[in-house]
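We treat protein structure as text, and this decision shapes the records that our systems exchange. Such a record has a labelled line for the sequence and another for the backbone structure tokens. The record that follows is passed on verbatim for readers who wish to inspect the format:
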Amino acid sequence: MASSQLPFRDNPNGSVAVHDDTADTGSSDNENHHAESLNSDVSAHVHAAGDASSDDKHEPTEEAKYSNPVNGHFPPQPSLGPPFDLMEEQRGKIRWAPGYDVVPDPIMVEDLDVAAIKNVVAAHIHLVGLDKDDFEVEYFAEGDFNILYTVRKASQPPGSGTEYIFRVSLPTYPWHKVESEIATMELVRMYTNIPVPRVYVYDSDADNPVGYEWMMMDKVKGIPFREAREAMDMEQKTKLAHNLADWMHQLSTLRFGKIGSVYRRRLKPATSKNDFKVGPIVDMAFMADWRLSYKLHRGPYTSIEQFLRAIIDVNHADVLEGRQKMRSDFCVARKELEWLTCNLDDCDKYDRKTIAEFQEQWASQPAESKQARIDQLRSKVTMYEENVPEAENTIFHGRPRYDLGDPGDELDRTRNLFQRLSTQCRALLYMVPHLCPAEILSESSTVLHHWDVSANNVLIDPASGTAVALIDWEQVQTLPYSLIHPFPTAIDDRYDMTVPPNPPAPDADEDFHYTYKVNLAYYENSLLRKAFRQRLEELQSPHLEAFEEREPDLKDLLALARYADQICMKNRIKELVEKLEEEIGRGF
């Protein structure tokens, strides 16, 4: 395992995280070579640190595995680099299940061993100043990618003292996601005053007693802005808008020359910006289903064109993936089998009419024809289910990423859908060189961008109404301002209301009161966006560059690239092709 302790020290800019066991990362093309070099570095570091020399034949104690009295930092251990087979790290732990969004959701397929979590916490409890004989671990919450436990002093009531979070990370992007998040949070703590939770120890290698990557960090005493908003007055909300502007301004000073995610160097504590570098991008576009196995450029990217092409490439690779086509074909065959054989009284009431119409189409057919179709479908479904390899257990096969719709001629439907999606992707690939800069990014042309400064991730002290933390630093990236939306999502929406809504009568229906609250939030957001921008102008912040209008709009082009494999984009892509053909000629 690769457990790492995070001592902190003070500096004029606030708390500075001083780590060891940091890592240089390069593009995925060199990932295997990179992992080998990381592991060779570890071997040298182990010997130099003196905690695992070849002369020591004794099995270390549990606590000795996690603390290093020689150098005062994380114990260097084998396998600190990215694993060779990223999907292997997911098997038996998560399954990607397509949901209502474009991107599938990672679902945990096994229960966590809480006893193992407590043992790991006990080995680290001294780092947060608690007694290993007086602590409690309790379930707290979970999100899309993490499960959180509260760590507190057992002899005190919950919420009465300082508490900590033990966060278990699902292996959506093994090693990279946790390593990049740790590095990003450290960089932000070192060079800004943005309130970021302090991380004490983490493990980016799932080969540990918990079986998953994890980190232990401060539990911030605050509630999401979404919950605090109604109780805050307009002065407090305006102050928050100014805080958000200050944070965006400070992030604008963290400059890089490539597009990707931030990682730390390995063999020395981070003491300057030079100890951080841009490596492979941590982005949902590259994670779900079979996407981690595709041989694609995962960053860092040296131009905007290179980045956009990579996003389109991974979507196109998914469309061309034979297993995606087989799953879509299987799902529509299974649905047709269910519709042919089900009793209408047992069907979902929302589907009953559609299924009845489908069954009526077969009512006039000879019984043997219907039975032959049922046998054919049953054989197809059984063959698929029996031939799914064990290695595919990270994929949920019961719902397709690319839905073929209701039963019908599924073979033609499959072929036509995937052909159309491939055509969309190719059209975008052809257009990108004509629509976005191909030149190499300059040395300081990208900034650290927290794309999810949402009402859930801004924590508020309910007593004072002030912001106390910005959380969720997963998938934070370095981007040029031409790809960054200017407003934080916490105060952003599609509306620009200049007049406050009229309040309903006290005895009005509940729906009127709800509508008023929604419209009031829209009106307030309009005011908060003005306050946000005014504060940026006072600071003469580089973040103002994100407001500049460009033609073409590269943010729009990035959105198209992210949804290039979705049929709902066909009209927008077609319009863009036609516009470009008018400007530079057909076939460009």
Summary: The first strand starts at residue 3 and ends at 5.
